[in-house]
Amino acid sequence: MPLATRVFAGGAGPALAANLLGARAAAEISNAIGQVTAGNMFGLPGGIPGLQNIFGWRVDRQNAPGGFINVSVQRNGVTGQPSSIASVFVPGAYNIGVPGAHLGPAALVQYNARKRELERAVRRGLEQSFASYALPLGQQPLQAGQPNNARAVSRYEVHGTFSS
Prior knowledge:
- The protein is of the alpha+beta class and about 160 residues long.
- The protein has one domain.
- Helix content is about 20%, strand content about 20%.
- It contains two helices and eight strands, in the order ββαββββαββ.
- The strands form two sheets. The protein has a six-stranded mixed sheet.
- The radius of gyration is 17 Å and the shape is elongated.
């Protein structure tokens, strides 16, 4: 089965308050998601270099369950409350290295195909996570005039095997 995404069994996570989104948030978040690559998603927890201020959003690697990395899109400048708007867990085993030259051009073609497939899956998971941005389970919809700060976002995970 090729790489796919699904809701992570660990449940939803806290998310950015809706009043902090901004009118152009969907386009800004989509732009940040589009800059995640197989080359920059793996590494130590923390901000991904070059992805720290994309229209006021950043992409971070955060704490994750064992064997995974957590790629998250967060709002800059938010303190004392959740800032995440999308999250996807990626198995660390998908961190593939560039093949040695001795393996020939076919190995490089396979490597590039896997890299693109992984990037598509991670970006899809982040977009699905952002699309899940909603009120926490069991919370009643807000009435006019109520603060709309309590939000949650489904965490997604990449699973399956590479097509090539």
